[in-house]
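[Discussion] Sanity-checking designs against the backbone

I'm trying to build intuition for which residues belong where. Below is a structure token string of 322 positions. I'd appreciate it if someone posts a full sequence so I can compare it with mine line by line.
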């Protein structure tokens, strides 16, 4: 029996611990949660059309966090009652990792790169999903980064041979996001619990530094594909608005992360949001826009494949999967 590259990497990561263990502490996750196998493995790819744009959602696997990370500012009993009433697990939060690929004319645009091999046992499947879908990673022309958390940028480099996974692509991300994570004084100016995230961001972004264009709000990548500022989850978080044939699609990144709480309780503060009040304000603005303008969404962490719409419900909103 031959050992696959992936098994080899996993073995190495397990044996040495290293970044994984540091991160488990940072994220408040025990080793048991990290090693729990992801339930129901998603199909590798889900495709649909938006006008002339071909949209493919690729899975990078999934990750599991305690449900307590969903709402740091809400009493446990209230959170548990809400999740139970919605038929959701009140103890464990399983998140998908849905990565959007846009084919539009000559451009093949990837939004985020997944978690790579060193973050979560059940994540880091993006390269396999490209293979399963028969899409060549070398054909990617642009990689847009919503933000620099591990599950979005640790897939920039292949840890097996340190090569770039998307070697022909240019990278585009928010200038504010780059400045936060790449600050030479990062370790002395930020809380210790995000240091492992920062070191991973610096390692991955640093490897492609000369290919990264840092942009402000409303940056047009190609006509009809625009990066919009959606700060709060991280300081320079951006989402991607795609417009084609009279339809609009918003690739949310982590501005909306949970299928009930993010939509129906937008003021509840996930512990993964770095600037909680700004994140809540951004969520409300996006939800209002999505419901009013009839936007289609792809949510990075929403249940696979994370494609849906927003409806107004009572005085808040509701996620409707497509
Ligand atoms: Zn994320």
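Best answer:
Here's mine. Compare freely.
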């Amino acid at each position: 029996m031959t050992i696959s590259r992936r098994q080899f990497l996993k073995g190495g990561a397990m044996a040495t611990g290293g970044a994984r263990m540091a991160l488990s502490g940072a994220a408040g996750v025990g080793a048991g949660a990290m090693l729990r196998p992801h339930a129901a493995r998603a199909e590798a790819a889900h495709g649909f059309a938006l006008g002339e744009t071909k949209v493919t959602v690729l899975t990078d696997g999934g990750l599991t966090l305690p449900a307590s990370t969903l709402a740091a500012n809400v009493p446990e009993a209230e959170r548990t009652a809400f999740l139970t009433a919605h038929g959701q697990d009140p103890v464990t939060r399983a998140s998908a990792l849905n990565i959007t690929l846009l084919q539009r004319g000559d451009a093949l645009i990837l939004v985020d790169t997944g978690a790579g091999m060193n973050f979560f046992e059940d994540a880091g499947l993006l390269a396999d999903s490209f293979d399963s879908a028969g899409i060549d990673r070398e054909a990617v022309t642009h990689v847009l980064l919503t933000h620099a958390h591990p599950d979005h940028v640790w897939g920039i480099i292949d840890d097996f041979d340190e090569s770039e996974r998307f070697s022909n692509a240019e990278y585009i991300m928010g200038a504010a996001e780059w400045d936060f994570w790449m600050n030479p004084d990062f370790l002395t100016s930020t809380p210790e619990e995000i240091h492992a995230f920062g070191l991973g961001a610096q390692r991955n972004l640093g490897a492609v530094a000369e290919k990264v264009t840092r942009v402000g709000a409303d940056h047009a990548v190609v006509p009809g594909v625009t990066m919009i500022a959606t700060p709060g989850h991280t300081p320079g978080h951006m989402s991607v608005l795609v417009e084609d044939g009279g339809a609009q699609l918003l690739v949310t990144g982590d501005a909306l992360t949970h299928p009930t709480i993010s939509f129906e309780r937008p003021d509840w503060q996930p512990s993964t949001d770095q600037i909680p009040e700004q994140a809540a304000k951004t969520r409300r603005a996006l939800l209002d826009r999505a419901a009013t303008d009839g936007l289609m969404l792809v949510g990075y962490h929403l249940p696979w494949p994370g494609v849906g719409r927003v409806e107004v419900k009572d005085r808040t909103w509701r996620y409707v999967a497509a």
